[in-house]
Design a protein that fits this description.
elongated, proline biosynthesis, eight-stranded mixed beta sheet, 56% helix, 12 helices, Rossmann fold, ProC C-terminal domain-like fold, 8 strands, NADP, alpha/beta, 2 domains, EC 1.5.1.2, oxidoreductase
Length: 275
């Protein structure tokens, strides 16, 4: 079976995470190319993963079966327009990990018939524990969907959405989501220190509690609500704490927060050229 040639346009943290995950999964690094104007960054990628590197985007996509657009959203248009001719000639699958840049804009820059997958990974992808939402344009084949999913699965869990507008919800939930949990951990740690625990003890107990709760939720068939009920004894300490959080409006506050993040994602899409 032919091994697909993958080119990353951009060699930053997310590209490095995907490359690292692919190589760790056994993907032949000689079939992976990274293109970036930063020669020092390219040298590091080559040294770490034995991939091919290129400073010329056109040359990098010449024989690519899959092109991953891994540059910042603010510079994506100029980068894509420069390489559009080469992509049009070779017709690879294009995967964009640029947050907020919609399919309509990418089609305008690349051409209407390009096979395109938009994806929204999050920062835990850097430790192969990411969560990525994906959306495919109508002309993406099932084989190409499998190819895109395989690349993103190298850094964690993947989920497809059927409507591109749902990518704004994905951004609000999992794209921005790690920061929400960091804030909760930060608040718990600070409260524990105020109650008299040493800072290191408060930190370790907070982190392990968060990790354990996440693993239980992932490995259990029960919903988070059921798991919460199972650890909440009537009249106990957990019930008291949860009552305070619910009376303080925590569920409604999270709903407002995610709605705000989704709305901002929509606004940024308009600014970045979405239609």
């Amino acid at each position: 079976m032919k091994l697909n040639s993958i080119t990353f346009i951009g060699g930053g943290n997310m590209a490095a995470s995907l490359i690292s995950g692919l190589v760790a999964d056994g993907y032949d690094p000689t079939h992976i190319t990274a293109s970036d104007p930063n020669k020092e960054r390219l040298a590091q990628l080559a040294a770490n993963y034995a991939i091919r590197t290129e400073t010329d985007n056109d040359a990098a996509v010449q024989n690519a079966d899959i092109v991953v657009l891994a540059v910042k959203p603010q510079v994506l248009e100029s980068v894509v327009r420069d390489v559009a001719g080469a992509i049009w000639r070779h017709q690879p699958l294009v995967i964009s990990i640029a947050a907020g840049v919609r399919e309509a804009a990418l089609r305008e820059w690349l051409g209407e018939d390009i096979a395109l997958v938009r994806t929204m990974p999050n920062t835990p992808a850097m430790i192969q524990s990411g969560a990525s939402g994906l959306h495919a344009s109508e002309n993406v084949s099932d084989i190409q969907k499998d190819q895109a999913e395989s690349i993103l699965r190298a850094v964690g869990l993947t989920c497809w959405v059927t409507d591109e507008s749902q990518m704004d919800a994905v951004t609000a939930l999992s794209g921005s989501g790690p920061a929400y949990f960091f804030l909760v951990m930060e608040a718990m740690e600070a409260a524990a220190i105020k109650m008299g625990l040493e800072a290191e003890t408060a930190r370790l107990l907070t982190l392990q509690t968060a990790l354990g709760a996440a693993r239980m939720a992932m490995e259990s068939k029960d919903s988070p609500a059921t798991l919460r009920e199972k650890v909440t004894s009537p009249g106990g300490t957990t019930e008291r704490a949860l009552g305070i959080l619910q009376e303080g409006g925590l569920p409604a506050l999270f709903e407002q927060a995610l709605n705000g993040a989704r709305d901002r994602s929509q606004e940024l899409s308009e600014i970045l050229g979405g239609k």
